[in-house]
Amino acid sequence: CSSDPSASLGFSVAMSSLEKRLSAAADDSINQLGESFKGSSMRVAKPKTSPGCFSAICGGTPIKEREVDVILIGAGIMSATVGLMLKELEPQWAMMMFERLGAPGEESSNGFNNAGTGHAGFMEPNYTKEVKNADGSLKTVTTDKVEHVCEQFLSSRQYWEYLTKTGKLPAPEAWIHQTNHIALGVGKDQVEFIKKRYEAMKAHPLFHTMEICLPEETEKAKQWAPLIVAGRDPKEPICMTRVPHGTDVDYGELTKSKITAFQHLGGDLRLHTEVKDLKKNNDGKWVVTTKVNGAGSGWARNKAKFVFVGAGGWALLMLQKAGIPEVNGYMALPVTGDWAICQNPEVVHQHRVKVYAPGAPGAPPMSMPHLDYRTIGGKEVLLFGPFGSMTMKFLRYGSVTDAFKALKPHNILPTMGALSRNMSLAVMLMKDVFKSSMGKLHDIRHYYPEADPDDWVFIPAGVRAQIIKKDPKTGKGMLQFGTEVVTGANGSICGLLGASPGASTCVSIALAVIEKCFGDKPDFKTKWAPKLKVMIPSWSPDVAAGDMKKVTPDIVNGIYKSTGDALHVSPK
């Protein structure tokens, strides 16, 4: 092997020149101080106020006073949807949105803090309750809940279609993807459940595209979900149903895009701003006291005619501060946990589906694990879980004192009653808390028998603040899985409590907020209703928000065709 001496010399000279450009000696002008340092990094004028004084009396910065028409607390998917909808309905209204963190959509809406499922009831077993025969065998399942959830998500798809076509949302590929939704049954009992569920749902227009894969159809099962089948004991029966209209949604990206549109229409987003108090003024307006770490006092009193509290788990604390009697008796049970995440492209590309299965017999509804294809920030991954855990925080970035602050004399008895009636949830959470890594891998292999432990990483999930309240029928404490809108008597304040399927049903919830709080206003029927009908064509002021007045296969197919084309999520 030979080398050219002149080439080597040229390379050395070039490297020497490069090193000189990338380094500087102590005598370099950039490292020289012109004179001795005098204690200020800026050339500034003498301050007009004395340092450390924040009182208006002694010349400090006074508390900022602002007044707007609408204030939204929290910058998650709910505030984003309510705020954007109201800004289109009333463009002249001044609106402010306050967010404690440094970006929108970083709590429950963040892509890694939720399952990212477009909940339409296609595969979630907890939306179809078992109905037993006298001998204890499975007779059928109920479909009222699953129908309602599906109709609500159709409203969301229509609104997102409208926003996309009007240029208020970016290209759909940035936040939504078509993903087959599969309900899985493993073992004799679960296979029977999946069959009965298929029989009950297939007849309804909302689910007429549902297909079934019976235990003996092994080749079809391999085509639908190869990871589920590979390596599984052939003696263990499995059954699946599939709906091709399923979606995976990055709610964090969707939230940010909606809030960007909100700002383009004139909405005012304030980040790094914490709401400290919420009280009603003598003039009937609400005063939202905020605090920032600023050059002035940092405090501000913000007045508004209407306040929406979309602060996730902290919504309960905010509504309690507001002192509205409608929130009495409510408490929250915060639940957190971990996801198992797989980033191996070879594995991810074999499972571009979402798979849900029933939990163990007697397990609480929220214990239904799932193996999900996800696209988060453009990154394709698989998520499994969640593995539950307990916390005192109402938000992932909340305080360990949240639950203690929310406990009041009026909600102690409902809380005790709800916890005593849901000991199975506590047992499940404790088992997950002490479950080893190999124990978690065993759970993953119930879905994906050939899972490689080196492919899976455990990451924190978000916090779900499940609703505790009095049962309207018995008066006893109950744990409610889902979301609930709590509105003040005159409709000037409204908040959202609860968890899943909140993000999927954000449009129906926003409609419910608007109808509850503004439905009796003179402009609602003449001015607002026609605009809402353009945004969500299936919406009707004559039925509950999210419900469809008439459901036929033609109507459902039309909605899926229109939204599928606009959002690029038509079945492949």
Number of helices: 16
Strand content: 15-25%
- How many strands, which pairing sense, and closed or not: the largest β-sheet? 10 strands, mixed
Cα separation of the termini: 57 Å
Q: What can you tell me about this protein's structure?
A:
It is built from 16 helices and 22 strands. The mean pLDDT is 90. The chain is an alpha+beta fold and 572 residues long. Helix 2 crosses helix 14 (506-518).
Can you lay out the helices and strands and say which pair or pack?
Elements: H1 5-21, E1 64-73, H2 77-89, E2 95-98, E3 130-132, E4 138-141, H3 144-165, E5 176-178, E6 180-186, H4 188-202, E7 211-213, H5 218-224, H6 226-229, E8 238-243, E9 247-249, H7 251-264, E10 268-270, E11 274-280, E12 286-291, E13 299-309, H8 314-322, E14 331-342, H9 345-348, E15 353-356, E16 370-376, E17 379-390, H10 402-406, H11 412-420, H12 423-433, H13 437-447, E18 456-460, E19 464-470, E20 477-480, E21 483-487, E22 493-498, H14 506-518, H15 522-535, H16 553-567
Parallel strand pairs: 1-2, 1-13, 2-10, 6-15, 13-22
Antiparallel strand pairs: 3-4, 5-9, 6-8, 7-8, 11-12, 12-13, 14-17, 14-18, 14-19, 15-16, 16-17, 19-20, 21-22
Helix pairs in contact: 2-7, 2-14, 3-16
Please give a handful of descriptors for the protein shown.
globular; 8-stranded mixed beta sheet; alpha+beta; 10-stranded mixed beta sheet
Structure described in brief:
By secondary structure, this protein is an alpha+beta fold. The chain has helices at residues 5-21, 77-89, 144-165, 188-202, 218-224, 226-229, 251-264, 314-322, 345-348, 402-406, 412-420, 423-433, 437-447, 506-518, 522-535, 553-567, and strands at 64-73, 95-98, 130-132, 138-141, 176-178, 180-186, 211-213, 238-243, 247-249, 268-270, 274-280, 286-291, 299-309, 331-342, 353-356, 370-376, 379-390, 456-460, 464-470, 477-480, 483-487, 493-498.
